[in-house]
Amino acid sequence: MDVVIGMDIGGTNSDLAIVNKTGEIIARTHLDTASYSEFEVYASEVADCAKKLAKEYKVELKAFGIGAPNGNYYSGMIELAPNLPWKGQIDVVGIMEEKIGVPTFITNDANAAAIGEMIFGIAGNLKNYVMITLGTGVGSGVVVNGELVYGHDGFAGEVGHIISTENGRVCGCGRKGCLETYASVTGLRKTVFELHTNGKRSGLLSEVPFEKLTGKDIEQAALKGDAVALEAFELAGKELGKVLATVAAVNSPEAFVLFGGLANAGKLIFDPIRKHMEEQLLPIYRNKIQLLPSGMKGNEVAILGAAALAWNEFVRI
Amino acid sequence: MDVVIGMDIGGTNSDLAIVNKTGEIIARTHLDTASYSEFEVYASEVADCAKKLAKEYKVELKAFGIGAPNGNYYSGMIELAPNLPWKGQIDVVGIMEEKIGVPTFITNDANAAAIGEMIFGIAGNLKNYVMITLGTGVGSGVVVNGELVYGHDGFAGEVGHIISTENGRVCGCGRKGCLETYASVTGLRKTVFELHTNGKRSGLLSEVPFEKLTGKDIEQAALKGDAVALEAFELAGKELGKVLATVAAVNSPEAFVLFGGLANAGKLIFDPIRKHMEEQLLPIYRNKIQLLPSGMKGNEVAILGAAALAWNEFVRI
Question: Closest residue of A to B154, CA-based?
Fold first, then answer.
C-alpha cells in the first residue's frame, strides 16, 4: 500500500505518522524535538523511525509532508523559529530528502491544517475558505480557488497578526493590538487577568495564578455562568469577528473553519464570533459566510495536515 | 485582425473601445448611460456601435469585456448598482451576448483594472498583487497566483470597505471608519473640512465650499506647502498604510499597484502610504512589498481593463 509520512514539528515534541490516501493513520510515533541540538542528527532519527514503521507495516513511503513553525514552502527551510532548538535557516527539505529518499514538502502548521481540512476534513467541497487555528497563538491558512495561498514569499496567512484593536495589547511580534493577543488561549487568560485588574471578581478564577490558569479552566467557569469567564469569551469573539469581517473584504471566502483549544469551546466562542462578524461585515457579505468547526480530531489535525500536504504535492509530481 | 470590445459602464458615461491583443485602442466611442432607462435599448445601441466600428476598421470582434459597478463575474449580472439607471438585477451578459453575438464577460471596474494591469500594464511579471483604485471611492482587485480572486460570490476585493479607524467617519455602506472615507478624493476633501472645523486655517483652501473643492485643488495646495492640504494627504496615507499592512497579512502580495485621481498625486500620497505601511507591517513582510503606480494611462485604465478581461477569458474558451 502506498502511504505518506506526516510530521508536525513542535518545540517540545515531533509527532510523526504513516497515513494512507483516505486519511487513516496506520502507525504513529513521536520524537523529543528539544533533545536534538543538531538538525542532521534529528533528521537521521526521523528517517530511521519512518523506515522502520514502513517495514513493520509493509507499506511503501511515497512522500513526506512536514508542518513546522516558520516552515517555508518555497525555500523548503525553517527560518528563524524562536521555539525550535535549531538556530538560523535550516534546509529541512534538502536534508530530509537525502536521509529518507522520498519527495519532501514543508509549510507552517496552520497552512498544513488548511490543506488537511480540504483533503481529509470537512472542506472537500469548499474552494474559498480560511482555516483559523485558535491555540496558544492564532494561525491561519488561506485557500482561494481550491489552492492554498502561499503569497509571493511563502508567508501568506498571518491573520493572527492583523491588528484588531489599535494601540491594544503588546504582542510578541513587537507591535500592539494583534488579534492573537485577544483570541488565543493566552489572550483569553490575559482578558481574565485584565478584568481582575479592573476590579471584576470571579469566584471561580480569581484564586488561580496566571501561569496556572488554563483555557479549560476558563471554559469550565464560563459553562457555570461565571461573568468574568463569559466576558473573556465575548471579547475574544468580538476581536475575531472584526478580523474575519476584514478578511472577508479581501478574498470573500464561503467559510471560516476554526480549530484548536479555543474552538473546542463550541457555542461559547462560536456565538460571539458570529454575532460580531455579522455586525461588522459589509452588507453584501452578510448571512453568507459559514463558521465551521474543523472536521479533523484535535490531536490529529497537525499530522493529518502534514500528510495532506504530502499527498497533495505527490499527486502533482 | 482579431479584436475585443472593452466597455466601462459609468453612471454618466459608458466608454467603449475596440482593442487589439497588444492593448492598442483601434477605435473609441461613448454613450450617455443616464439617458437609457431601459437596459434592452441601451444594449441594442451598444451592439450597433460596436458592429459599426468593427465594419469601419475592418476588424473581427471576438469577445466583449465589461467593467461596471457591482458587475458580478459569476452571475453575469449587474446587481443593485446605486448609480446606474437600471434597478434590480440586470442580466447584462445574457442580453449583450444575444445582441452582439460574441462571448461576453463582466466584472467590477477595479477587478477589470487589475486584469488590465496584468495584461497591458506593469504587472505582467507579478503573480501576487493588489490593485487599488483611489478615485471618488476606493476599489480593489486582488490577484493570487496570477489569477484574479472573485471569491465564492464574485464580490472579493472590497478593500475600500475595510474599517481602518474604529468608530470613524460614516460611510455610504452604513458602517463607520471604512478606508474609503479617508483615502479617496472624497475622503481627502472631508479631511480638509474636518481640519477647518478643528480650527486649522488654510490660506488656499478655506475659501472654497465643500461641493466645489476638488482633489486637484488639494494637490495644488499641498505642492505649495499648504499645511492643511499636506495633513490631508498624510491622513489618507496613514489609513491606507494600515489597511495595506492588514491585506499583506492575508495574501502576502509582492506589490500594491495604485491608480486613480489620488494616485496621480505621486510622492504626496506614495510617501505617507509607504511610511505608515512599513511601520504597521508584521516584521516578516517589511521592505519586501513594492508600491507601484499603474502602468496604464489614467483615462484608459477602465476600458483597457475591460478589454483585458475579454482577452483573458477568450484565450480560455
Answer: A252
User: What residue ranges define each of the domains in chain B, with the CATH number in brackets?
Assistant: 2-116+299-316 (3.30.420.40), 126-294 (3.30.420.40)
Interface residue of A125, A176, A250 to substitute, partner B, most B CBs within 10 Å: A250
Contact B159 A249 (CB under 8 A): yes
Q: CB A285 to CB B175 under 8 A? A: no
C-alpha cell at B189: 476633501
Q: Quick one: which of A124, A34, A128, A45 has its CA closest to A84?
A: A34
How many angstroms separate the CA atoms of B27 and B13, rounded?
17
CB–CB of B64/B52 below 8 Å? no
Average pLDDT over residues B86-92: 92
φ/ψ bin of B307: left (φ > 0), alpha (ψ from -120 to 50), beta (otherwise) = alpha
Residue closest to A78 by CA, chosen among A61, A64, A63, A96: A96
pLDDT tens digits, A212-248: 999 999 999 999 999 999 999 999 999 999 999 999 9
Q: Please tell me the distance from the alpha carbon of residue B172 to that of residue B83, in angstroms, as a whole number.
A: 13
Could you tell me the pTM of the whole model? 0.94
**Segment B29-61, tens digit of pLDDT:** 999 999 999 999 999 999 999 999 999 999 999
